[in-house]
Amino acid sequence: MDKYSPKDIEARWQGIWAEKKAFEVPDPDDPASADPSRKSYVLEMLPYPSGSLHMGHVKNYTMGDVIARFRSRNGLSVFHPMGYDAFGLPAENAAIKTGLKPAELTRRNTENIEKQLRALGVSIDWTRELATCDPEYYRWTQYFFLRFYERGLAYRRQAAVNWCPSCQTVLANEQVVQGACERCSSEVENRSLAQWFFRITAYAERLLEDFRLLDQWPERVITMQRNWIGRSEGAEVLFRVDELELDIPVFTTRPDTLFGATFFLLAPEHELVEQLIEGTDEAAAVREYVAQARAKPATDRAAVDREKTGEFTGRYAVNPVNGERIPIYVSDYVLMEYGTGAIMAVPAHDQRDFEFARRFGIEVRVVVSGEREDGTVVRAGDGDTMAEAFEAEGTMVNSGEFDGRDNREAGAAITASLEAKGLGKADVSYRLRDWLVSRQRYWGAPIPIIYCDKCGTVPVPEERLPVLLPEVDDYAPRGQSPIASNEEFVNTDCPHCGGPARRETDTMDTFVDSSWYFLRYTDPHNDEQAFDSAVANYWMPVDQYIGGVEHAILHLMYARFFTKVLYDLGMVDFQEPFTNLFTQGMIHYRGAKMSKSKGNVVNPDEHVERYGADTLRLYILFMGPPELDVEWQDQGIEGGFRFLGRVWRLVNEVVEKTEPREYIEYANGGGKPLELLRKTHQTIDRVTVDVGERFRFNTAISAIMELVNDVYLAKDELFQSTEGRGVLRFVAETTVKMLDPFAPHISSELWERLGHEWLWREPWPEADEEYLEEETYELVVQVNGKLRDRIKVPADADKQALLEAARASGKAARHTEGKQLVKEIVVPGKLVNLVVK
RNA sequence: GCCGAAGUGGCGGAACUGGCAGACGCGCCGGACUCAAAAUCCGGUGGGGCUCACCCCCCGUGUGGGUUCGAUUCCCACCUUCGGCACCA
After folding, report:
1. Among the three residues A395, A430, A465, which one is the final residue of a domain in this structure?
2. Measuring CA to CA, which residue among A39, A2, A144, A72 is closest to residue A535?
């Protein structure tokens, strides 16, 4: 017998798969009439092509491959494509460092990654491969930008934005983590710049509503998105500044506390600040305060425990419910980006307002009376003495005609009465901001917009797409994209009037590229349109999407948004792109998340080289449940290799000692052959459920290991009889079939040695019900819930028989002797519990 | 502070709907094979106790309570770790 030598085997089978086009899926001739239940779109999040794949990628693509191969063997038409999220900062930064062009560097990297994926034996339809930096791809990214623009979903405005001083570009809100750039961790600055946005807030409600279509998504991802969108119900209320005849709207979630508003606040950035203070004695101080607030880094401003600061404007606003004049302050704890940038402050019922009021000596007026969590009661006159705001529910006080009512229903009533007077209305506010998509960097899709002095902002006509990213000599960022210095690119003709005009030089956020790539896969070579709707509608939505949790908000929310817009454009007939989502856990090593920056990465290539791809694939899934973080163990992979060696020797021995014709499935004689046959069918059942329904690859693999262990113990005896050899042949073939999704190379090789041809066309084994049931089982006998004995009983024994058997147990009797039998619990198939006193 | 997930042998982890805790693997110990080693094959391996004859007993799934004939699993409180959000009115 030859030794298990993964190197030769793996290369050989990868060659055969490519040559036989084993994983290429043709589009159905008429997608409209094809049966969509027969297809399965299995997709892993596309990789960013940095130098090479890391272990997280290996886990991701192996999981996807197991599912793809399993489904394909179960008769589904599996769609399993791959591509590269190829635009982005790292390539550009590397270009600056090395002097290589980003395009060239990216090309090299994608080639390397494709090589690695092929070396892992992932079953991909490579004819659909794409890279988002390819003009044939980003042409359509630009096309979508224009369609968004037409619908008013892409717009440009001056706004306070997040600026990363190190990356020299603006960032979307989603890309700022705790006040720092998610990419380089530099502290983000606040700048006011004219930028391009996608109006994702217009879809906030639908993004929330359609969670009902995502019942197969992990709860935590939905929760994270729901929190991110942050829907709050409340009211918009108008406060009037009499002297200036100005109405300032505020948003509040607590219209019930309106009678307790004792002051009014504006964000420092609020556009009316200047108008309010003009000519007042306070003007200079307010201007000074505003300037200071603007200069403060975003992180400082967001610090929760900071003391409240502010400046009186010298003006008063009129509370619409009681006509009271309350002082207007400017304070930096009011955010311009949320609500209306102005708030009514109710110190008795909002902790932040409370802190401000105490600091500035403003009246605290209780308008909701109720009980605190610690049992103390807050009453109408407690304003001067209370130590903190009362934010819970209660009964209305100090609120005129609303006194005595439940605060929740009073809130609705107050809103209604304001609405009748035209001074307010019920309203909903979201935490979600519009998606800032322009970037001041080079390596991205140029925004297809032209500025003309005469015609203003003019979209590039569709037929002139793509707007090609020009080559430049110097990629160093200077606060605007390097392409701005390319005169040839910038200067152009206005598509409208033909006069001289200038191109937009910002490029698009790479998350725009990855918001629709799954659609392009369905029709990747179409040069007339982004994709053919009928074809896309056939393959989409993605039946199983797999990726890391780190994209729970960013990519997954953007892709959902994009899909909804495309639905509204009539381009697709589904509202959600990913029916099922699986978020994999991270790989830890030496107590920390495996990452380059921590210097604790384990290189997959080395392990492929040393043990083969099959071993790496097997081990990475065997490590633990796929959705949880798991710990990489250097010696663990050795166990995977040993197991495959065991399978190798076993199957080869079966090939040597049995004939293919000896294959029989039925062991009539009972004894060891029957036992092993049973175990085999039970294993098929477990593996099928674990892989197909539960995604518990670790337990599926351990079930196969158990089977192999049993065969080792029984084989010497079984080789002696015809029946035994027949069963061994069956077990060997079944084991190989079940191992295939995890370790496809060795499985294909062994399948061939067993005298067959292409394993990837073989149907998945089916468990025979007849063999799942045992004739006898071990009945557990408990006394007072404690295990005392196990006895063999016939599978069909009834309750009475079980009870008698249990009573007859000598071991149990020792514990019941001399005691009174109080109760007997019988669970057929499991146990008998004798309760004594 | 709020929301979510997780705490099980020396280690990674099993236990599907409340029913034999520790499957499977790693490591370790012992045996077989060998001149020897490696590889391989077989056996053992939670802790403690015992008239350790492998028979048996007690304890044991982060901590403390509870429900139940019976709890790793359900409920309550707390501790620890990780992830998300964090002045969002």
Report:
1. A430
2. A39
**Is residue A714 within 8 Å of A653, Cβ to Cβ?**
no
SS (H, E, C) A570-599: CCCCCCCCECCEEEECCEEECCEECCCCCC
Do residues A294 and A382 share a domain?
A: yes
- Domain assignment present for A4: no
Nucleotides of B under 7 A from a protein CB: 3-6, 11-15, 19-21, 23-27, 39-43, 56-58, 69-71, 82-89
d(CA A12, CA A15): 5
A710-CA/B42-C1' distance, Å: 13
Whether residue A321 is found in the same domain as residue A382: yes
In the DSSP assignment, the letter for residue A190 is E
Same domain, A500 and A555: no
Q: Is A138 within the bounds of a domain?
A: no
> What are the φ/ψ torsions at residue A155 (nearest 5 degrees)?
-150, 160
d(CA A788, CA A653): 43
Residue A708 inside a domain? The answer is: yes
CATH number reported for the structural domain that contains residue A256 in this entry: 3.90.740.10
Chunked into runs of 10 residues, chain A (837 residues) has average pLDDT values of 92 96 86 79 93 90 96 95 93 86 93 96 97 97 98 92 86 82 81 91 94 89 90 94 93 95 95 93 94 78 79 95 95 91 95 94 95 85 91 92 93 95 94 92 96 95 95 85 92 94 95 97 96 95 92 92 97 96 86 73 90 96 90 89 96 92 66 90 95 93 96 93 91 96 98 95 92 82 84 84 83 79 85 85
Q: Does residue A98 sit in the same domain as residue A213?
A: yes
Total of domains in chain A: 5
Is residue A379 located within the same domain as residue A308? Answer: yes
CA–C1' span, A187 to B85, in Å?
A: 18
- Both A103 and A169 in a single domain? no
Instruction: Please tell me whether any atom of strand B lies within 7 Å of the Cβ of A582.
Output: no
Domain carrying residue A650: 635-772
Q: What is the pLDDT of residue A342?
A: 95
Q: Is A692 exposed, middle or buried (0-12, 13-18, 19+ CB in 10 A)?
A: middle
A566 in a structural domain: yes
End residue of a domain, out of A466, A495, A510: A510
pLDDT at A304: 67
Q: Are residues A270 and A397 in the same domain?
A: yes
Going by C-alpha positions, the residue among A37, A36, A43 that lies closest to residue A67 is A43
What is the spatial distance between Cα A397 and Cα A348, in angstroms, rounded to a whole number? Answer: 12
- Answer yes or no: are the C-beta atoms of A46 and A546 closer than 8 Å: no
Claim to verify: residue A752 and residue A803 sit in the same structural domain: no
How many Å apart are A815 CA and B48 C1'? 22
Partners of A546 in beta bridges: A44, A582
